[in-house]
Amino acid sequence: MSRIALVDDDRNILTSVSMTLEAEGFEVETYNDGQSALDAFNKRLPDMAVLDIKMPRMDGMDLLQRLRQKTTMPVIFLTSKDDEIDEVLGLRMGADDYVKKPFSQRLLVERIRALLRRQEAIIADEAGTPEESKLMVRGELSMDPLRHAVTWKGKDVSLTVTEFLLLQALAQRPGFVKSRDQLMDVAYDDQVYVDDRTIDSHIKRLRKKMRQADDDFSAIETLYGIGYRYNEE
After folding, report:
1. Which DSSP category does 41 fall into?
2. Are 169 and 177 in contact (CB under 8 A)?
3. What is the pTM assigned to this prediction?
């Protein structure tokens, strides 16, 4: 049973969404501000967090920033109806997905299940496949799906589930272009629609993390109007 942390200062949302998630078989922990959630996470991390952005004591952006210092667990943001800046900023800070308020609880459940499935797929070991064959090496890049581990020039790079999947999809075939639609299929379920801006934000965040390991990182190339390509260095 996956444990989902729901963090929102709206008690009606906490009550209704937690009831829905529990009915779907999840274990739910609720918090009405970011600081309370962080205090609890420092003792025990959930499997996934669903965060509102605007909250007292500590908002969702600050909470996400602190979480990303120590965990790559999936995070979904709940954003205001018309606040596109929050969506883009949240993705660039390391959120895996976002759902706009007011939202369909069924949609939220599907987004949660999609991210958990992808996290499980990353670490799933295929029957009869030697563990060492799981390691993917492309030039200076090394990716180990079993351990959700990435290194560049020997330096560890901490990626979220979505970032890992996007990098894996690009690096599997160096030199070949992946369109944004193809990358959407990698990172999201067919029934979940996201726009180009979402993929672009994840790629920007991914590049930023790789450049923290190497200022000269340039393996991910943008082909404007087409998509992205991984060039083996």
Report:
1. H
2. no
3. 0.65
Q: What is the 8-class DSSP label of residue 47?
A: S
- Count CB-CB contacts under 10 A for residue 52: 24
Question: 233 by DSSP, 3-state: which?
Answer: coil
Q: What is the mean pLDDT of residues 200-222?
A: 92
Residue listed under structure tokens 């999201």: 188
Amino acid letter, residue 151: T
CA 182 to centroid of chain Cα atoms: 17
Q: Which residue shows structure tokens 């996290």?
A: 119
> How far separated are the first and last CA of the chain, in Å rounded?
42
Report the distance separating Cα 219 and Cα 183, nearest Å. Answer: 17
The predicted model gives 160-166 an average pLDDT of: 88
Q: Which residue has the higher pLDDT, 91 or 98?
A: 98
Q: How many angstroms separate the most distant Cα atoms in the chain?
A: 52
Please answer whether residues 122 and 162 qualify as being in contact, where contact means their C-beta atoms are separated by less than 8 angstroms: no
Which burial class, exposed, middle or buried, applies to 113 when counting CB atoms under 10 A from its CB (0-12, 13-18, 19+)? middle
Q: Which residues does 104 contact at the CB level (< 8 Å), separation at least 6?
A: none
CA distance 220 to 39: 37
Strands (E), 113-175: 136-138, 141-144, 149-152, 155-156
DSSP β-bridge partners for residue 136 = 143
Cα–Cα distance for residue pair 111/108, rounded to 1 Å: 5
pLDDT value at residue 97: 86
Pick the closest to residue 51 from 106, 111, 135, 119 (CA basis).
111
* DSSP bridge pairs for 48: 4
